[in-house]
Amino acid sequence: MAATQATQARVVALRFDGDALVVLDQTLLPWRERYLRLTDAAQVADAIRRLAVRGAPMIGVAAAYAMALDPRPELLKAARPTAVNLARAVDRVAAAPDPIAEARAIHAEEEAASDAIAVHGADFLADADARRILTHCNTGALAAPGRGTALAVIAELAVRGRLERVMATESRPLLQGARLTVYELAKLNLPHELVVDSAAPGLIARGAVDVVIVGCDRVAANGDVANKVGTYGLALAARAAGIPFVVAGPTSTIDAATPTGADITIEERDPNEVRSAGGQPLTLPGTPTRNPAFDVTPAALITALVTERGVAPTP
Ligand code: MRU
Predict the structure, then answer these.
(1) Is residue 102 in a domain?
(2) 289-315 per-position pLDDT tens digit
(3) Each residue of 7-36: pLDDT tens digit?
(4) Tens digit of pLDDT for each residue in 110-126?
(5) How do residues 139-182 score in pLDDT, each as one tens digit?
(6) Model's pTM, two decimal places?
(7) Ligand 1 mean position to 97 CA, how many Å?
């Protein structure tokens, strides 16, 4: 099925009204669409920490507006450590003569980057004749201003009539794929299937996928990429099957000051996110648990990095 632009309704996850940052509470999706009105840095930091606002470019924009409302850089930077967009946006607004104008500029730049990523990425996938696409976590309009990153590429491919089907992973533990990507794909009217994370490598090996495309939270200087936990396993599966593994993200996610993936701080979150789902316990209380929110994919496993500047084959 080919989607047309007219059928692609866009989600607005964040807006600034002059006195407050208004965000769609992503912890309640896809069941409830409730907006939060955030007026100080503590509220924004809390919303970022508990993933009411999430996705690397989106938390950068949220933190930029928070700096304009209530400049508390250290509080905001501490909310989440892995995505470089957050600290970078905080520093940029802190150094700007007009904080609101700077925050609006960051927001506008990310929107423009999203549109360009969509076009460059769709050109690349169309050239590879990739029509059955697997993606991980959520990289759409909920995660980045505009159309998103990897999901923007997928949506653009659909506009061109070249998308057969999107396979979305659940993305445990917080289910950004099952809750958020499926919500966006349904709104975009794109054909999709949900799979558990552990099904993806086997399906890739069986030839059910032409390309894997994901977003990124930090790209190190050597091209290693930190992204939602589970990304590395998908890259290994793609390499083993001989299909492209593509990363999409704005240049605001590239961090030349981080030499390699080993230097990226990986956020470890509350073990209860793993021990339960939707408030229901999944295991014995107090079970020793690790909950890294991200992993690092070495540059050698990445076929291409799509940014607003074009497509770079990684080293
Ligand atoms: O923990 P999250 O939901 O903020 O993780 C998001 C991701 O890993 C995305 O892939 C990444 O931020 C890119 S978003 C366009």
Answers:
(1) yes
(2) 999 999 999 999 999 999 999 999 875
(3) 556 789 999 999 999 999 999 999 999 999
(4) 999 999 999 999 999 99
(5) 999 999 999 999 999 999 999 999 999 999 999 999 999 999 99
(6) 0.96
(7) 30
CA 208 and chain centroid, separation: 23
Domain closes at, from 108, 129, 149 = 108
Same domain, residue pair 263 and 131: yes
Which residue's CA is the nearest one to ligand 1's atom 2? 55
Q: Which stretches within the chain are classed as H helix?
A: 41-49, 56-69, 73-77, 84-94, 99-127, 150-159, 182-188, 200-205, 231-241, 272-275
What is the best residue among 86, 197, 217 to mutate for testing ligand 1's pocket, by most ligand atoms within 8 Å of CB? Answer: 217
| Residue 6 is assigned to a structural domain of this protein | no
Contact 7, 190 (CB under 8 A): no
197 is catalytic: no
Domain that holds residue 40: 14-108
78 and 138 within one domain: no
| Closest of 170, 197, 165 to residue 182, by C-alpha | 170
Do 30 and 127 reside in the same domain of the chain? Answer: no
Token reading at 170? 């659940």
User: Which of 108, 126, 142 is where one domain is finished?
Assistant: 108
